[in-house]
Amino acid sequence: MSKNIKVVFMGTPEFSVPVLDMLIKNTNVLMVVTQPDTYVGRKKVLTKSPVKLLAEANGIPVFQPEKIRKDYEVLKELDFDLLVTCAYGQILPKEILDMPKYGPINVHASLLPKYRGASPINFAIFNGEEKTGVTLMYMDEGMDTGDVIVQDSLDINGDNYGELYKRLSVLGANLLFENLDYLVSGNVEHYKQNNEEATYTTLIKREFEHIDFNDNGVNIINKIKGLNPEPLANTIINGLELKIVDAHYEEAKVDEVGKIIEISKNQFKITCKDGNICLDIVKPFGKGVMVINSYINGLKKENIINTFVQ
To answer: Using alpha carbons only, what angle is made at residue 173 by residues 118 and 91, rounded to the nearest 5 degrees?
Structure first.
């Protein structure tokens, strides 16, 4: 049955790729909708989304509207069973949601109603969750407020954002695959979310990346993990930004917060509210990622020890 299911897919980042790849192998993907090409890097290279690259490699038509709310006429020409979205990046109007025969399905990277919104993976790590997962849901006009069809969960196990991102993308693809025929059966059970239990996430803004060492050590480490490998947490040392790729926390008595108290062969420690943040891997301004002893070897320690980060 699955190969006869006609699908329109909407997605953009690498997270969406396993879902689209599964659909290409198991259904009839009529069209892929993704965000417009963007300029990336210092040289401003016009770059296609990972989803567009996969669609083109498989000869699937690609549609890239600037604003899907105003530009969706091409979709009216298609006769499709399912609309599947996964990290597309735009809110869909009711006119599109009503098009597929068996409904619009979203693959969302949290156990709804927790972590609705744009950054569910990051925020699960920021908040120290032990578990997270993927939700298959019917879409409505709200922000991840539609009825839940099925969920699957996994343990976070100390993952950083990049590691959890990969695991959840595969989990989402597998969960959708397992339910493809069910979704077009005409007899899908679903239930409304409890809005009183809902939590929300936001886009990660530049100012959020800066570490506040007045916070406790666990929260700081969670922020570092939740922003690794991008955009990375940061602090300012001696007037220059230092991005922190990885670190660990040690409990200790603290007199002054945000102070660089140790720079030795393999130790670079900054005090926080309830202990020390020990840097392990960093990315200095204008340089590549390096382990902490390589960073220390290039420092004039006497200019930094016992100073405060900003």
So the answer is: 30
Omega before 113 cis (within 30°)? yes
Domain of residue 134: give its range.
Answer: 2-197
Task: Give residue-wise pLDDT tens across range 160-182.
Answer: 999 999 999 999 999 999 999 99
The residue behind tokens 């666990």 is 218
What three-state secondary structure class fits 224? helix
Domain count, the chain: 2
Question: Residue 45 burial by CB count (10 A; 0-12/13-18/19+): exposed, middle or buried?
Answer: exposed
Going 114 to 120 to 123 to 129, the CA torsion angle's sign is: positive
Structure tokens at 73: 């006429």
User: With contact defined as beta carbons under 8 Å apart, do 102 and 82 qualify?
Assistant: yes
Taking only the tens place, the pLDDT of each residue in 197-250 is 999 999 999 999 999 999 999 999 999 999 999 999 999 999 999 999 999 999
Question: Would residue 308 count as lying in a domain?
Answer: no
> Within a domain: residue 138?
yes
Query: Cβ(195)–Cβ(113) under 8 Å?
Result: yes
User: CA–CA separation, 101 vs 78, rounded Å?
Assistant: 11
Residue 63, domain member (yes or no): yes
Whether residue 108 sits in one domain with residue 141: yes
